Automatic annotation (TrEMBL):
UniProt domain Alpha-D-phosphohexomutase alpha/beta/alpha: residue ranges: 8-141, 163-263, 270-374
Required cofactor names: Mg(2+)
A Pfam entry, by short name: PGM_PMM_I
Keywords: Isomerase, Magnesium, Metal-binding, Phosphoprotein
UniProt name for this protein: Phosphoglucosamine mutase
Transmembrane regions: none
Family: Belongs to the phosphohexose mutase family.
Annotated InterPro entries: A-D-PHexomutase_a/b/a-I, A-D-PHexomutase_a/b/a-I/II/III, A-D-PHexomutase_a/b/a-II, A-D-PHexomutase_a/b/a-III, A-D-PHexomutase_C, A-D-PHexomutase_C_sf, A-D-PHexomutase_CS, Alpha-D-phosphohexomutase_SF
Enzyme Commission (EC) number: 5.4.2.10
Domain Alpha-D-phosphohexomutase C-terminal intervals: 396-453
SUPFAM superfamilies: Phosphoglucomutase, C-terminal domain, Phosphoglucomutase, first 3 domains
GO molecular function: phosphoglucosamine mutase activity
């Protein structure tokens, strides 16, 4: 069992004792704390939007969340099976006080989570998150009496509203996409991508679409994180069916990656690079990605005359930095695309619209587009943490060992080795240390990661 409280929300494995997993009591407690925080911000706005991915526990968690909010006197608008970016868009369209997305993103089927949004449809800040956690810890909430209970309504219009917004975005070239007659395979990993991605592709004029794992039952047919080792079925189908490319999303459709026409990986790090290249051709400006993302974005940004800025890991941190530097595009190397004048959230649907526009207007296949960008290799690794491990002490020891190298401690520990780097940090969503290393040589990137992982293991003893 696991229960993790962070700026990414409340995330845990379903079941177990309260406080040790995401039990029904925990769902109620943290929902009540969030609802109480919202009412303290603005007692006049009592509307909250909720939506969920396709997880097995989704219906149960949704019912608990909705009933708790109604019990606080809050009016709930339930989008049902939805996506993270769709709920974010709905919050602003509904002029709601906030929103809750019920998804554990890329985590396996036994996990679920409450992702908490503010009135701008953005993840709440770390400071606000700390307040919510404090309210929960002290159970500092009070429910409404029978005459002041909130209302509960459903709204199934936001699939189309989200698609319409993508089609209306100025840089999404529907005519060019339609003219290319793309043949596409989609890995929907048994979640809401099976509903939203094919519908978007159809609206973009793509008629030849094959969907793998299209039953929305939450029984993920493979590990739901869209990494190469989990996308073998997609890769094989693209190659076998002679498709133009493949699309993979995670269960809540905020991460996006592609498979090339030969079944090879485009690389999730390069999703943002390609979309940024397209955006920057039309709009000069700055870009942002987190400290764990590829240097290729910086290279592309400089090529277009813009400035690149790194941020701490986490969508809320990327968004904050994007606002600070007035970025025209940003995101994370995990396939998260943030288009600020669309909305400040990772959104695979606008990412698909922009990537396909880029590809269609260039007239190139996917492999050729990937080959046009500088080659960097990121080795992504993780070490699971036993309960009680003192990560701070481990990081201090590693910092001491590599004290002669440039070190950034803004978010965990980033160490530079000439043009190579390694970034290690604890995860916001799992009890692990993530170790990402990058080099222009794949073996070098792997070896840097192995060396640091060995250091961590030694310092854990």
């Amino acid at each position: 069992m696991a229960l993790i409280k962070s700026i990414s929300g409340i995330r845990g494995t379903i079941g177990g004792k309260p406080g040790e997993g995401l039990s029904p009591l925990d769902v109620v407690k943290f929902t009540a704390a969030y609802g109480t925080w919202l009412l303290r911000q603005n007692s006049e706005n009592k509307k909250v939007v909720i939506g969920r991915d396709g997880r097995i526990s989704g219906e149960m968690v949704k019912n608990l969340v909705a009933s708790t909010l109604v019990g606080l006197g809050i009016d709930v608008v339930d989008l049902g099976l939805s996506t993270t970016p769709t709920v974010e868009i709905a919050v602003t369209m509904e002029q709601a006080a906030g929103g809750i997305i019920l998804t554990a993103s890329h985590n396996p089927r036994e996990w679920n989570a409450l992702k908490l949004l503010n009135s701008a449809g953005e993840f709440i800040s770390g400071e606000d998150g700390a307040t919510v956690l404090d309210i929960a810890a002290n159970e500092d909430f009070s429910f409404a009496d029978v005459n002041k209970l909130g209302s509960y309504t459903t709204d199934d219009t936001y699939l189309q509203k989200h698609i319409d917004a993508v089609l209306a975005y100025p840089l999404v070239d529907v005519a060019a996409i339609k003219a290319r007659n793309f043949k596409i395979v989609v890995d929907a990993v048994n979640s809401t991508g099976a509903i939203f991605v094919p519908a978007l592709l159809k609206a973009l004029g793509v008629d030849d679409v094959t969907v793998l794992f299209g039953e929305v039952n939450g029984k993920f047919s493979h590990n739901p994180e869209p990494l190469p080792e989990n996308l073998t079925a997609l890769s094989n189908e693209v190659d076998k069916s002679k498709a133009d490319f493949g699309i993979a999303v995670d269960p809540d459709v905020d991460r996006l990656c592609f498979v090339c026409e030969d079944g090879g990986m485009f690389g999730e790090e390069y999703t943002l690079v390609a979309v940024a290249d397209y955006i920057l051709k039309h709009r000069k400006g700055n870009t942002v990605s987190n400290l764990s993302s590829t240097q290729a974005l910086k290279d592309v940004t400089l090529k277009h005359g813009g400035e690149y800025h790194p941020s701490a890991v986490g969508e809320v941190n990327v968004v904050r930095k994007m606002k600070e530097v007035n970025a025209v595009i940003g995101g994370e190397g995990n396939g998260g695309i943030i288009v600020p004048d669309f909305h400040y959230g990772r959104d695979a649907l606008i990412g698909i619209g922009l990537f396909l526009s880029h590809m269609a207007t260039l007239g190139k296949n996917m492999k050729a587009i990937r080959n046009s960008y500088p080659d960097y290799f990121i080795s992504k690794n993780k070490i699971e943490l036993d309960k009680g491990v003192d990560v701070k002490t481990i990081f201090e020891k590693i910092k001491g060992k590599y004290k002669n190298q440039p070190i950034n401690t803004e978010d965990g520990l980033k160490i530079e080795f000439d043009k190579d780097w390694v970034h290690l940090r604890t995860s916001n969503t799992e009890p692990i240390i993530r170790i990402y290393s990058e080099s222009q040589n794949e073996t070098t990137a792997d070896n840097i990661a192995k060396r640091i992982m060995q250091d961590i293991r030694e310092f854990m003893l």
